[in-house]
Amino acid sequence: QQQVKQSPQSLIVQKGGISIINCAYENTAFDYFPWYQQFPGKGPALLIAIRPDVSEKKEGRFTISFNKSAKQFSLHIMDSQPGDSATYFCAAISNFGNEKLTFGTGTRLTIIP
Amino acid sequence: DTEVTQTPKHLVMGMTNKKSLKCEQHMGHRAMYWYKQKAKKPPELMFVYSYEKLSINESVPSRFSPECPNSSLLNLHLHALQPEDSALYLCASSQDPLQRASYNEQFFGPGTRLTVL
């Protein structure tokens, strides 16, 4: 299966709080898991990505946690800021397949003051 | 230059019109992509060009016709579109589709907002 399931659909977090977005996949051929951030009127931009041979990757306030046995991964945004308000897409790709990114359904994140 | 540019930003066309979308990158990338994105949905892959050759066509209707004149340019020719084709059309590029040692990040342009009347 090529699906990547993403939740929640929308999320409201208070400034300074932790935002958590979850994704699950089925295809065990996926071997790279990027997260894209998209602001209104803009194209998606790569935020952070992880390979399944590590359980966690951190870049600044953004952390990916990866559970290979459960086929799940999540994005944590620490100290969430109003500027983080955007739509977030998880994605998956097989490096030895073609160039097809399989996107999750997206999470609209709103950070309130 | 680390960006993908797309023109026009907005396009309104009738169902009998012929128009083209243009995408350009000067990062030396050898893979270029067209995606369609409806509101509140993820991007859907339409076409992939690898080394200027069409490598993936996701069963897109023939009223959409891609063209890759050279390694920096990607066009999408539109003809006899339907109102349901209204969407944000995104172009993306990535470095080297034959390089499998690492993930080829896809860099997206800002998109063309297309409205079909």
Report on this model:
The complex is a heterodimer of chains A (113) and B (117). With 113 residues, chain A is an all-beta fold. Chain A is 0% helix and 52% strand. Chain A is built from no helices and eleven strands. In chain A, strands 2, 4, 5, 9, 10 and 11 form a six-stranded mixed sheet that branches. In chain A, strands 1-3-8-7-6 form a five-stranded antiparallel sheet, with no helix packed on it. Chain A is globular, with a radius of gyration of 13 Å. The N and C termini of chain A lie far apart (40 Å). By secondary structure, chain B is an all-beta fold. In chain B, strand 5 (44-50) and strand 6 (53-57) form a beta hairpin. Chain B is globular. Chain B starts with a strand and ends with a strand. Chains A and B meet through strand 5 of A and strand 5, strand 9 and strand 10 of B.
Sequence of secondary-structure elements of chain A: EEEEEEEEEEE
First-last Cα distance of chain B: 36 Å
- Low-confidence sequence ranges of chain A: none
Which range does the strand content of chain B fall in?
over 45%
Number of E-state strands of chain A = 11
Number of strands of chain B: 11
Structural class by helix and strand composition of chain B: mainly beta
Number of helices of chain A: 0
Quaternary structure type: heterodimer
Q: Could you state the order of secondary-structure elements of chain B as H and E? A: EEEEEEEEEEE
Decide which structural class fits the backbone of chain A: mainly beta
- What average pLDDT do the residues of chain A reach? 93
Helix content of chain A: under 10%
Would you identify the regions of chain B where 5 or more consecutive residues have pLDDT less than 50? none
Radius of gyration of chain B: 14 Å
- The number of helical segments of chain B is 0
> In whole angstroms, how far apart are the ends of chain A?
40 Å
Query: What average pLDDT do the residues of chain B reach?
Result: 92
Amount of beta strand of chain A: over 45%
Radius of gyration of chain A: 13 Å
The description of the largest β-sheet of chain B is:
7 strands, mixed
